[in-house]
Design goal:
The chain has about 270 residues and is α+β, with helices and mostly antiparallel strands. The chain has 8 helices and 15 strands. It has a single domain (about 5-260), classed as Jelly Rolls, CATH 2.60.120. GO terms for molecular function: dioxygenase activity.
Length: about 270
Amino acid sequence: MALSPSDIARYRSLGYLTDLPGLTVGECEELGARIAAFGRRHGVQEQLVLRNKAHLKLPALAPVVADPRIVDAVEAVLGPDVLCWGSSLFIKEPGGPEQVAWHQDSYYWDIEGDAVCTAWVALIPSTSLNGAMRVIPGSHLLPPRRHAASPSGSANMLFSYEEISGEVNEAEAVELTLAAGRFSLHHMAIVHGSAANHSAGRRMGYSITYLNPAKVRHHARRTHGLLVRGREWGMFSPDPVPDGEMDPAVLAFVDEQFGRLAPRSGTAGRTSSR
């Protein structure tokens, strides 16, 4: 197993693990170059388009979601059947206002069962200065928090434009700084968010959501994924296989699954899921 029994116990009690070994620095640099080239080639802002099934829109990302260095750790906390349910690229440009407001993924996902986690892979070092993710340890074990629309003018990067209503005790937060290629795992119900990028360079992370299809059910239309470990599909079906980058059939599929939450162009406005 990629994780020790004490690692797994820590994940269960705190809702996260961090600084896990994943990609090499060279692999991160190559992916960063491919992502930038994708933006230039298609005339889009990568941080807007490569969200919601990013590995289908840019197939160069697909090997990352199936990488055994990541999936081994995911299997250790979810069990032997692992399905990649989605992936998103989070990019904060230097000096920009963009931040990720405090939220719980479970609020948005309409999932029955909790065998769901997210691997957050740092493609560029994630630091205090450029807005590393912060989590509230143990918050996944507490009652769900209420969410509401973000205030007018907020730079919240979440496409639903919603966040936890009420105060979050930031004194309890733990910052998950990561070197390039390292990754963290967090439970879908943990309270988490991240600040703006105050550095002189990009901050870029690849967020990959996994679930055990034998242990969960989904109550809406997001019933497709990529099985990366095991044989059990449960109620889920295979994602389409893209015929290259930005395959029109794939874009139509993602639109149907997510209701056009992810804009296709760099000038598209924010939409709301609720």
